[in-house]
Amino acid sequence: MGVVTLEWPADGVALVTMTNPAINNHGSWAGIHELWQTLVKAREDGARVTVLASGVPGHWFEHAWLRDMLNMFQGKEVSGPADGWFGCINELSKSPVVSIAAISGDTSGGGCEIGWACDLRVAEEQVYFSQPEVRIGVGTGIGGASRLVRLIGRTVAAEMVLDGGAISAQRLYELGGINKVVPQGTALEAVLAWATRLAGHPPDALAGMKRMLAQAEENPLTEAIKNDQRIFQEFSGKPAALARMEEVQAKFDAGAGIRETYWLGEIEG
User: Fold this and answer.
1) Average of per-residue pLDDT across 233-256
2) Which of 104, 127, 187, 262 is the most exposed place for a label (fewest CB within 10 A)?
3) pTM value?
4) How far apart are CA 13 and CA 192, in angstroms?
5) Is the pLDDT score of 90 beyond 90?
6) What is the pLDDT of residues 161-211, one digit of tens each?
């Protein structure tokens, strides 16, 4: 029996949930491989946005299951293939599907690294994050140093990876590492509402902007801007985009401003 489920709460929105209470959602090789395969299936079945959630109260995704890690280094049997870790990271960060982490419990190590690879992160107010690898005697293998330093800067990234202590959701939010902090018990609801709105955007534009972001992380600025223009040209003149532009311009022609045209219901006033 697997530990990962796939549901479709809205059109174009895939909800991927890992529930492995026996090891508190630590990342067993088998569980992470299953997570990767489920993410691939969601994309192949038409997901435009994928939400990552946990079914274990108090825990989101935790660090690698040390029994598997020990067995791997000692040449002993492990629970499953080890390729799921990089598979998950690549699927979340490089595929055209927008990924959102609904972080409802504490997260650490490889679990944090899966979260860092997502495009967006929403965490509940009681949640703590940590990269405890140094306390275990290992390293951050899939972005806990390199991706984290790009998200929050070297100073606090160094604190997290050199000492391995816990960082609150609120502090991480203030540093730019997560997008929103929400009350306890509400992360999934908030993320599904956000995911549903995102999935309603023109699909080519949504996927194209995801590609721009992903590739901008790896390219120098001049090359990144050229790449933005290349991707822009790929989808911006298509019929769906033209129709949407006509619809928006009609609102402006009728006297609407940008608040009621783009953000109605999202801001006060």
Assistant:
1) 85
2) 262
3) 0.90
4) 8
5) yes
6) 999 999 999 999 999 999 999 999 999 999 999 999 999 999 999 999 999
Helix (H) or strand (E) holding 121: strand 120-124
The DSSP call for residue 21 is G
Beta-bridged to residue 106, according to DSSP, are 59
Q: What are phi and psi of 12, to 5 degrees?
A: 80, 0
Count of positions (residues) in the chain:
269
Beta-bridged to residue 16, according to DSSP, are: 6, 52
DSSP 106: B
Nearest to 175, CA basis, from 159, 163, 194: 159
What are 17-57's pLDDT values in tens digits?
A: 999 999 999 999 999 999 999 999 999 999 999 999 999 99
What lies within 8 Å, CB to CB, of 174 at 6+ separation is none
Tokens read off for 268 = 């006060």
Distance CA 148, CA 177 (A): 8
The side-by-side arrangement of strands in the sheet containing 120-124 is: 4-10, 13-18, 49-54, 98-103, 120-124, 180-182
Between 268 and 86, the higher pLDDT residue:
86
Q: State percent of the chain over pLDDT 70.
A: 98
Using alpha carbons, list the distances in angstroms from residue 199 to 8, 10, 52, 104, 205.
12, 9, 15, 22, 11
CA 129 to each of CA 103, 121, 247, 258: distance values in angstroms, whole numbers, following the listed order:
10, 12, 43, 37
Are the C-beta atoms of residues 68 and 75 closer than 8 Å to each other?
no
